[in-house]
Design a protein that fits this description.
This protein is an alpha/beta fold. The strands form three sheets. It has a six-stranded mixed beta sheet with strand order 4-3-2-1-11-12, with helices on one face. It has a six-stranded mixed beta sheet with strand order 5-6-7-8-10-9, with helices on one face. Helix 2 runs parallel beside helix 3 and helix 9 packs antiparallel against helix 12. The longest helix is centred in the C-terminal third of the chain and has 28 residues. This is Serine/threonine protein phosphatase. One of its GO terms (molecular function) is hydrolase activity. Pfam families: Metallophos.
Length: about 425
C-alpha cells in the first residue's frame, strides 16, 4: 500500500476581512467564514480519500490572533480525523509564531506539532517494510532571516523521507523573506518530497525530489484571486510521488475587464457586462464567485459611469445575483471618452479642460513629483504589510501615483461634465 496524504498550508483561520469593498453584509459574512469552511472541506477530503495523514505546512492562524474559538474549531476538525485514524502533522509558520493561542491549544493525540528541532517522526510502514518518516521544523519567532535547512537531520536511510518547511524560498513578490533557501538546497538535502508553505500561489518544482508549495486553500481578497486548493499526494513503494490538485475554496475572487469601446448606450453597457459575467461564472466551478469588474475602453458613457458609479454598481450587482452565487466586490471605472480629430472631447469648456488636464497637467514632471511625495508620506502611515502590497517597488509606486491622479481628475471632470450636460438628463 502507498502512503497517501493531503498537503496544505496558509489557512489563516478566522483572518479578519481585508477588503473595505465588502459592504454587502451577506457577502462579508461569507468571506469571514470562508477559511473555516476551507478547513472543513479539507478534512472532508481526507475522510473521503481515506488518506494516511494531513500535512499543514504553517500559518494555521493569522498573526496576533487571541480567540480561543478559533483554536476550539481547529481542534474539533482534527478530532474528526483522529476518530478515522488519520494523523495530522503541523509546523508553525511566521503567523503562528505571533498567535497567542498557538501554544495553549490541546490537539488530539494523533496530531503532531513539530518543535524547533527537526526530529523525524515515523508516519507509516509500507507493506514491503519500508518506513515513511516526516521531518518538520517550527520557528518560534515571526521573523526568520536565515535558512532553517541546516537544522534538519539527514534523511533516514532506507526510508521514504518527507520534509515540512515554511519558507519564502529565494523570494516572492508580496511575501516577506522567511527562512529563505534555494531549490538547489532542498534538492541536495536528499528528501523524497518537500511539503512547503508561506507563498500563497501554488508552485510545483521538479520530480526528484518533488518540491510543492500548495498555495493557500482559500483566498481572502482580490489580491488572492483564482481557484485555490490543496495537493493530494500518493507516494508509492519506490518513493515516487503522484500529485492531484483538488479545489477547496468555497469563495473564489476574480478580476473581470469589460471593454466598452464603441458602446454608447446605457442598456448596451449593462448587456455587455452581464454577458461577460455569465461567461466567467460558467468558467469558475466555485460555490461563490466574487468579482471585481473593471469597465474599460473608449466610450461616450465614460463621464456618466463615473458620475453615477453607485447606480452602475447596483445594476451590475443585480446582474451578478441573477447568475446565482455571483457577487460584485467592486466596480472600477477605467474607461475614457473618445476625442475628436482636434484632440478634444467636444466643443465645450469641460471637454477643453479635460484635454488640458490629460495632455498638460498629468504628464508634467512637477505634478508627478508632488503627487509622489504625497503618496510616500501617506504610505508611511500604513502597516508594513499594506505598504508592500500597494507599492512593492519604485515602479509600482509610480504606477499607483499615475492611476490615482488619473482616477481623481476623471472623477472631478465627470461631475463637471454632468452639470454642463444638464440635470434633467436621464438614463437611457
Amino acid at each position: 500500500m502507498p502512503f497517501r496524504f493531503v498537503h496544505t498550508a496558509d489557512l489563516h483561520l478566522d483572518s479578519p476581512l481585508r477588503s473595505l469593498a465588502l459592504r454587502n453584509a451577506e457577502l462579508a459574512n461569507l468571506v469571514r467564514n470562508a477559511t473555516r469552511n476551507a478547513l472543513t472541506r479539507i478534512v472532508d477530503l481526507c475522510l473521503a480519500e481515506a488518506v494516511d495523514a494531513l500535512l499543514i505546512a504553517g500559518d494555521l492562524y493569522d498573526g496576533t490572533q487571541t480567540s480561543m474559538n478559533t483554536a476550539l474549531f481547529l481542534a474539533g476538525e482534527l478530532r474528526r480525523l483522529d476518530e478515522a485514524g488519520i494523523r495530522t502533522f503541523v509546523i508553525r509558520g511566521n503567523h503562528d509564531a505571533q498567535s497567542q493561542v498557538t501554544r495553549e491549544l490541546t490537539l488530539p493525540a494523533s496530531a503532531h506539532i513539530f518543535s524547533g528541532r527537526s526530529k523525524p517522526v515515523l508516519a507509516k510502514t509500507l507493506e514491503d517494510g519500508r518506513p515513511v518518516h516526516i521531518h518538520g521544523m517550527s520557528f518560534a519567532d515571526p521573523h526568520a532571516a536565515e535558512s532553517l535547512l541546516p537544522y534538519f537531520q539527514a534523511p533516514v536511510a532506507g526510508a521514504i523521507n518527507i520534509g515540512m518547511l515554511h519558507t519564502s524560498l529565494a523570494g516572492s513578490a508580496g511575501h516577506d523573506p522567511y527562512a529563505p533557501c534555494s531549490l538547489a538546497d532542498l534538492e541536495r538535502h536528499g528528501f523524497d518530497y518537500w511539503a512547503l508553505g508561506h507563498i500563497h500561489q501554488r508552485q510545483v518544482h521538479g520530480r526528484n525530489p518533488c518540491i510543492v508549495m500548495p498555495g493557500m486553500p482559500q483566498g481572502r481578497d482580490i489580491n488572492e484571486a483564482g481557484v485555490k486548493g490543496v495537493t493530494l499526494v500518493t507516494i508509492d513503494e519506490d518513493g515516487d510521488p503522484f500529485l492531484d490538485e483538488r479545489p477547496i475554496g468555497t469563495a473564489v475572487f476574480e478580476r473581470l475587464r469589460v471593454d466598452l469601446t464603441g458602446v454608447a448606450d446605457w442598456r448596451a453597457m449593462l448587456a455587455e457586462a452581464g454577458r461577460q459575467l455569465s461567461l466567467l461564472r460558467n468558467e469558475v466551478p466555485a460555490d461563490n464567485l466574487i468579482v471585481r469588474v473593471g469597465l474599460s475602453g473608449t466610450t461616450p458613457l465614460a463621464w456618466r459611469l463615473r458620475r453615477d458609479a453607485d447606480l452602475v454598481e447596483a445594476e451590475i450587482a443585480n446582474l451578478a445575483a441573477a447568475l446565482g452565487g455571483c457577487w460584485i466586490e467592486k466596480i472600477e471605472i477605467l474607461c475614457r471618452e473618445g476625442r475628436n480629430d482636434e484632440g478634444r472631447v467636444g466643443a465645450d469648456p469641460v471637454g477643453e479642460l479635460a484635454a488640458l488636464v490629460e495632455g498638460d497637467v498629468l504628464p508634467a514632471f512637477s505634478f508627478r513629483s508632488e503627487m509622489k511625495s504625497v503618496a510616500e508620506e501617506l504610505l508611511q502611515h500604513l502597516p508594513a504589510e499594506l505598504r508592500s502590497l500597494l507599492a512593492a517597488d519604485e515602479q509600482r509606486l509610480e504606477e499607483l501615483v499615475r492611476d490615482a491622479a488619473f482616477a481623481g481628475s476623471a472623477d472631478v471632470l465627470s461631475h463637471l461634465h454632468g452639470r454642463s450636460a444638464g440635470a434633467g438628463e436621464g438614463i437611457d
